[in-house]
Amino acid sequence: MHEKETTQASASSGKRSVFPVATPPNIVPSHLGMIPVVSRRAMPTRAQMLALAHQVRISPVIHPGTLQEVVNAWRAMSVSERHQYQLTIANQKTSYFNAFTLLSQAGGSLSAVNNSSIASGPASVEAYEGVFFIKTFHKFTDGVNRARIRVTVRSQDACFAHLEHGQTLTLFLHTTPAINSKGSFFEIPPSTPYSGFVI
Predict the structure, then answer these.
(1) CA 161, CA 125: separation in Å to the nearest integer?
(2) Which domains, ranges and CATH numbers included, belong to the chain?
(3) What is the pTM of this model?
(4) What's the rounded Cα separation, in Å, for the pair 138 and 75?
(5) pLDDT (tens digit, 9 = 90+) per residue, 20-78?
(6) How far apart are CA 199 and CA 183, in angstroms?
(7) Between the CA atoms of 98, 104, 109 and 112, what dihedral angle is there, to the nearest 10 degrees?
(8) pLDDT 10s digits, 90-142
């Protein structure tokens, strides 16, 4: 919030009373990505409207989130909250706890990094000719190739300013990597607000 605190002149001269500004609660995304819009067919009947009104009262809040917003929410949660809050990814409803996969527990299988979950694990940062390369510590196999996952970060990418050579960080992936032409690394397609990588 960038709002100033509300002040009000008090009865005594030269002093102001300070009232704290209410901070809105953090909204936990319920969906990774945009929520599909259901096309309207016909005007609902009165009974359907009453049923819908009841459903809205008892249903959890639906809020779409970007990959960064979902990761930020997960980071802020306790383990019990990760079990409690629901997250829908690719039309599959699960808990925040089950939506995240640790790369260290993937058994080296590249299938752990996919568009149905969010994979996370330690990675290192290397700088080369004005570009950063984020590389996972672990190697993965797709059944044919065995290599680490590498993410290329250029100066126009939002996280570029937060990286430095030799840094260790946690990399979050929601994408499908593919082996590069040299067979040396699995690389990811360009990121969008809802897929790719965040740190």
Answers:
(1) 13
(2) 102-198 (2.40.50)
(3) 0.78
(4) 22
(5) 776 666 789 999 988 766 666 778 788 888 877 777 666 667 889 999 999 999 999 99
(6) 25
(7) 30
(8) 999 999 999 999 998 888 999 999 999 999 999 999 999 999 999 999 999 99
For residue 78 the two structure tokens come to 């306790």
Query: Can you read off the two tokens belonging to residue 35?
Result: 């929520």
What tokens were used for 182? 């040299």
Cβ density class 107-140: b for 16+ within 10 Å, e for less: eeebebbbeebbbbbebbbeeeeeebbbbbebeb
SS3 content of the chain, % helix, strand, coil (to 5): 20, 35, 45
- Separation between Cα atoms, residue 57 and residue 54, nearest integer Å: 5
